[in-house]
Amino acid sequence: MNHPSDQILSNLDSELTTKDKLGQASIEKSLPLFTGELKIDDKPIKLLIFDRINAALTHDWEAAVQQKDTFLSADYYRGFEQGDMADVKPVYVIFQDAGETIGAAVFQSIYIRGDFLRPASKVEESSCVFTQARRYVKRMLREHINSMHIRVLVCGNIFITGEHGMVFKEGSVNMGQRYQLVQGAMEYIAEVDARTSDKPIDAVMLKDVHMDHVEAARVIKDHNYSELNSEPEMILKIRDSWVDFDAYLADMSSKYRKHAKRMRKKGQVLVRKSLSVAEIQANRDHLYELYRFVADKVEFNTAYVSPQYYVELKKTLGDRYRLIAYYLEDEIVGFITTVTTPGFLEAHYVGYNEQHNHTYSIYPNVLYDVVETAINDKVPLVHFGRTAPEIKSNVGAVGIDYQSFIKHKNYMANQVLGVLAEKLVPVEDVQLRHPFKENK
Question: What is the CB-side half-sphere exposure of residue 24 using CA atoms within 13 A?
């Protein structure tokens, strides 16, 4: 089999001037930023590459996505682009076979600053030698990269856990070929960018491959990619028997049912309200402060969403996007955003006031409210993301693993990265809860 990155045919002379850079090309929006060609088993696959979703739409983007994933939809990325996400630039790729669109992929170009890596708020002491060793490696790595400022091209969405980077029409190419095409496109974009950018891409990354697909994705390791472990995503499967929230509580053991009721009672004073575009805009800066309080406690942040992100997603996604504000009298003391996508409900971003969270259990109430929303909307799954796994397990969420693949463009740096990737196995010192009755 021919590997895609070995078969790149460039059209740079005719379609990309030396003045053009990713995200800055002054060409007509309906034309590709540039094009290329990959080969799979000697079959040519054309790449159409764009820096604006509206341009990709003119080349059957929606036909490829087929409404399978809200986070790959044109509506989502219109909001993303208009949300003033200064540190993150999307790049859109359409794959064509003999003129027919067979797939689409999204890449995000991001600057990662070392000062986004910060110590965890509190780490319990451990007598386990292996746990201490892993923490030592992470601490040394943190100190080493604190001053780093690198640019990474990621296939997927850095603001959402899971596979939200590509989609292909069924029967067009097999699973391994999909990952070969994505890997080839990713390296081709980096190659073009290296010729045109003042700050070229340093590394490329295939993010959050589901464990069912990891074996197929490992074909790209032939091109010196390293596997990168990460913490699991917390997911709750909504049972058919949960016709309402009381039925959900009935499946819990007495201990956790009492805990849930106690948390809900503490939060009774909070008034929930789904905000309109105008209301989100009016409270934008305050909502962002609440978000940053939570985000700044996370050990590693690749980037922050912008204050305008919430406003623009509500404009473009409409009822699929909800921002629920929690009021204490006339003050917003917390919020949660959710996105409905085919097959699941995404608990997207949360923010709250620390003092009021302690008094009124805002965050636990947010989680229970998301569960209740999913039950009422008859959504089969809730995706809660990676952070705070212990408290999410209180509501019944369980961990789902993903694997990522990363490659530094510098040979020596890539060798070091491979060693570090093996060392950075998540430390499993979190006590996950099992709230449901054993026979349930």
Answer: 11
